[in-house]
Amino acid sequence: MKVIENRALKDEEKMELQEIQLKEAKHIAEEADRKYEEVARKLVIIEGDLERTEERAELAESKCSELEEELKNVTNNLKSLEAQAEKYSQKEDKYEEEIKILTDKLKEAETRAEFAERSVAKLEKTIDDLEGMEPGRGIRGIQRKTLPIDVNLFPCPPEGGGRDLAHVLCSVLCQS
């Protein structure tokens, strides 16, 4: 019986040890289950965050593509505007040169007009002087070289045209 008691005692100690080990194993399993549930919950949260982040990334990529396309369009428009600016700059230079030429022509025409007005005034004075001359010495007796103006500045009017004094004098001078 001693052997049986010893054996029973050993078995009892072994059983107590196994019960302690079982309790520790249950405790470890419970802790593992708790950690698993916590990790699973975190995984669900992270997966949700991942989905939202992927959606934001897709939107950002889409926006980036749109902005790249817009940048390409803006670049093309800029090139087109630069080409137009160059073209208009050349036209502006051409027009400025044309304005300068026309301004010079205007000044020349104004100078000729002033000279013509002075010549008309001289012609009118000459006509007034001729009208006051003694009879028998009419307008036909005056030679072109005695007039103080260049008669070639005034083209003679066609037959029957012109009624002012300058044209009358011109037509008379052209006939002599």
TrEMBL record:
Keywords: Actin-binding, Coiled coil, Muscle protein. GO terms for molecular function: actin binding. Pfam families: Tropomyosin. InterPro entries: Tropomyosin. Residues 15-133 form a coiled coil. Belongs to the tropomyosin family. PANTHER family: TROPOMYOSIN. This is Tropomyosin 3. The gene is TPM3.
